Amino acid sequence: MAILTAKTRAALKPSDFALNGSEYPIHDLAHAKNALSRVSQDGTPAEKIIVRRKVKVRYPEIDQSPDKSADKPQMPKVMPAPMPKMYGR
Predict the structure, then answer these.
(1) Which of 17, 61, 83, 87 is spaced 20 to 30 A from 5 at the CA atom?
(2) For the purposes of burial, counting CB atoms within 10 Å of the CB of 28, is it exposed (0-12), middle (13-18) or buried (19 or more)?
(3) pTM of the shown model
């Protein structure tokens, strides 16, 4: 992903952002994919809808199929320690 400096970011048009003309830059493919990742982590449900819609319109080639496992908390894949055997009781 190309580095987005403050000067470059200031030069972007409001239409190059997915929200409010200043959040989630989507001016290139890498930043659009990053916007989808960030909004899925930190965005409200309304923000997720807006960002996904704007990215889909601008970059229809990006696969946005919902990941069912992303919304469910995952249990750690750690096996519990075996119980010690108690002798002499």
Answers:
(1) 61
(2) middle
(3) 0.69
Q: How far is CA 83 from CA 50, 79, 80, in A?
A: 51, 12, 9
Burial readout 59-69 (b: 16 or more C-beta within 10 A, e: otherwise): eeeeeeeeeee
- Break the chain into its structural domains and give their ranges: 6-64
The token duo for 7 is: 């000067």
The answer to whether the Cα torsion of 66, 68, 71, 73 is positive or negative is: negative
Strand 23-25 and strand 17-19: pairing? antiparallel
- Residues above pLDDT 70, as percent of the chain: 82
- Decide: 24 and 39 in contact? Cβ < 8 Å: yes
